[in-house]
Design brief:
glycine-tRNA ligase activity; seven-stranded mixed β-sheet; 13 helices; globular; Rossmann fold; five-stranded mixed β-sheet; about 425 residues; BirA Bifunctional Protein, domain 2
Length: about 425
């Protein structure tokens, strides 16, 4: 984990937020490569969930909503964690995390040294207006409610019929008591969610629940996550969220243990009934409150696990075996020598052309071996080298990140080679 954190900062994936002022717990900034990785994850998700399907539409709801939304959804009352304080070191943390947090003597906390748990609401308060008293509102604790409060708007404006889904990607905020494990548990994070509406029937909900479980875990596998490090974990009755009839997590085996990064929930009719919303079947004119199957994945957690899973160290070689669809740069272009204008000009010509279609890196620093190593470290799948033979026959050397094998390819065939790995 230390190597991942060091690489992430050194190469521009993830920085501590406001680091020059000592940072702030639970907040992170994404550098040039981290921003690209996150963008690629979100774009791939949107393409597979919205673009390629006829039964799901997308929205982008506001981060701040009328506070009545959170009262109706049950979050004001039930969106809580148990808070305790150690009587020895005076640290405050979630009660269910006390075994993972060290006391001032470096030993694990003992249950008998903790205060009685107190209920702590995770919603982050904001105050709006220019005069006192200002209006109290909340930064959304989940992006889900934006789909529910727009349920009727979406039906009226799209004429979509059940079964259908509403997809959304966006920021959410939770006043976590003990943020930690790098970006895994943060106070500001991004989610990608589907709220899938079905007829209120238990057999139907079981069918769609199983369907979305398989769809979502297979999506992560298709983008390179090691199947042996993925598993489903069903929630016990006493740990289900207040809205869940059934809940299963997709977990990844991280260096800090099995960790959830996407949940599949049968929310029943909890949300729509709380908001007093119904669906009218356009064929039968029958009104009913649909059931909802939800998939809720963390963009930040996914990005972290893709980084962890792709990190490979072989002898002295260190590289990220990121799926080409997720890699920040799809290719890198080099002139063999940085002091030969004819090579630089030709390489620049290729670079500028490729940059119209792909994220491409340019590098002329150091020797060719160091350039390869630098691109390996950030997960660039293909390196393209322009040499003196290029000036004679319009061919370049393509070098594969994973195998390190090289082949000569005509300049006119480079884009086909890149497209092939992006299929």
């Amino acid at each position: 984990m230390d190597k991942i954190i060091a690489l992430s900062k050194r190469r521009g994936f993830i920085y501590q937020s406001s680091e020059i002022y000592g940072g702030i717990a639970g907040f992170w900034d994404y550098g040039p490569l981290g921003a690209e990785l996150k963008k690629n994850i979100k774009e791939q998700w949107w393409r597979d969930i919205v673009q390629k399907r006829d039964d799901i539409v997308g929205i982008d709801a506001s981060i701040i909503m009328n506070p009545k939304v959170w009262e109706a959804s049950g979050h004001v009352e039930a969106f809580t964690d148990p808070l305790v304080e150690c009587k020895i070191c005076n640290k405050r943390f979630r009660y269910d995390h006390y075994k993972d947090i060290l006391c001032k003597d470096g030993k694990k906390h003992e249950k008998e040294n903790l205060s009685e748990p107190k209920i702590f609401n995770l919603l982050t308060e904001v105050f709006l207006g220019v005069t006192e008293p200002k209006q109290k509102a909340f930064l959304r604790g989940e992006i889900t409610q934006g789909a529910f409060v727009n349920f009727i708007n979406i039906i009226d404006s799209t004429r979509i019929k059940i079964p259908f889904g509403i997809a959304q990607i966006g920021k959410a905020f939770r006043n976590e008591i003990t943020p930690g494990n790098y970006t895994y548990r943060s106070r500001e994070f991004e989610q990608m969610e589907i709220e899938f509406f079905i007829t209120p029937d238990n057999n139907e909900s079981n069918k769609w629940f199983d369907y979305w479980k398989n769809e979502r875990v297979n999506w992560y596998k298709s983008l390179g996550l090691n199947p042996d490090k993925l598993r489903f974990r069903k929630h016990d009755e006493d740990e289900k969220a207040h809205y869940a009839k059934e809940a299963v997590d997709i977990e990844y085996h991280a260096p800090f243990g099995w960790s959830e990064f996407e949940g599949i929930h049968n929310r029943g009719d909890w949300d729509l009934s709380r908001h007093n919303l119904k669906y009218k079947d356009p064929e039968t004119n029958k009104e009913f409150i649909p059931f909802v199957i939800e998939t809720s994945g963390g963009v930040d957690r996914s990005a972290l696990f893709f980084l962890i899973d792709s990190y490979i160290q072989e002898d002295k070689r260190e590289y990220l075996k990121l799926h080409p669809k997720l890699a920040p740069f799809k290719a890198a272009v080099f002139p063999l020598l940085a002091n030969k204008p004819e090579l630089i000009n030709k390489a620049r010509e290729i670079y500028k052309k490729l940059k119209q279609s792909y994220m491409v890196s340019w590098d002329e620093r150091g020797n060719i071996g160091k350039r390869y190593a630098a691109q390996d470290e950030i997960g660039t799948p293909i390196c393209i080298t322009v040499d003196f033979d290029t000036l004679k026959d319009d061919s370049v050397t393509l070098r594969d990140r994973d195998t390190t094998k090289q082949e000569r390819v005509k300049i006119s065939e480079i884009e086909k080679s890149i497209d092939k790995i992006l299929l």
